[in-house]
Amino acid sequence: MTVRIVTLPGDGVGPEVTNQALAVLLTAAEEGGLDIAVEEFRIGGRAVDETGTPLPQETLDACRNADAVLLGAVGGPQWDHLVGDQRCESGLLQLRAGLGVFANLRPVRVHPNLADRSALRQEVVSGVDLVVVRELTGGAYFGRPKERTDQRAVDTTVYTRPEIERVARVAFRLAAGRRGRLTSVDKANVLATGQLWRATVSELAAEFPGVALEHALVDSFAMRLMQRPGDIDVVVTENLFGDILSDEAAVLAGSLGLLPSASLGSTRAGLYEPIHGSAPEIAGMDRANPYGAILSAALMLRHSLDRPDLAAAVEAAVDDCIATSVLTADLGGAAGTAEVGAAVVAAVRGRVSATAGTAS
Q1: Could you give the number of structural domains in the chain?
Q2: Which of 233, 243, 272, 330 is catalytic?
Q3: Together in a domain, 82 and 154
Q4: Is 219 one of the annotated active-site residues of the chain?
Q5: What is the extent of the structural domain holding 218?
Q6: CB neighbours (10 Å) of residue 39?
Q7: What is the pTM of this model?
Q8: pLDDT tens digits for 30-67?
């Protein structure tokens, strides 16, 4: 059976990192006997320039019909003047809502060879392996009505019990398959939505007796994330908090360019993207770090394509390349984007072939 992948390279460094992730994905698929068909569509600034909208209907339709979507990044200074639904970021929000992907998984793992790249002491970040599960289609980003004048602006944060339950279930299941610890982050001492969040997650815990649940306020948890990150297993939180905390967690790994993400809904189809932005200042210079995009392709193999073996091979190949100092400038290295991609392709080919040989 052929699986259909849609790529949305987007803007800035998006096409560069997406190209390398796609090369790795296709190599893993070829070596592992997985048949993939790929189609490319427009999103973000490029889509605005060519179609007048950041998310053309043909793009959304193609993504809805795909088995998985690989996204680069959107936006740049030439589109910053746009407002409302014309903004590049609005296209991304529309895509998430249109695909019904409500749970954003952002794993953060510190490679031993990169512990010294973190702004924190090596003994603090050593062994860090956590996942932030961010609710993706509710909260302030989607709340209506929004208001803005020269003197006043209003964003509305709304959550319902079913929205909280479905993302919390994803987090509980993930924690059950890891170290069995879940931290639910809210602002229940001030916000009504935080109180509903805490009550709902607490009630859901009875369905997962093997998972130890704790609650934390977002401000104190942000400090704990920097002080004792090794104690954290899985985190579940609302949209705005999850956006901020997962970017903060990039400090642990040493670079935003290292971190992947998977956005999942009620079906196997998902949206996969590195968490970094379009970095227009280095676009076209072969300097962007493609590891986050490549690791996003690994998450795709695991969660949407049902090939955890190939996902593990890609992740191990990335580890191999980092261990041999194939690093871009943000990690203190001199390798270009394409060089990193080629190194991971070679490492994947060797790992999958070796596994196949062992299995035979």
Answers
A1: 2
A2: 243
A3: no
A4: yes
A5: 119-253
A6: 12
A7: 0.93
A8: 999 999 999 999 999 999 999 999 999 999 999 999 99
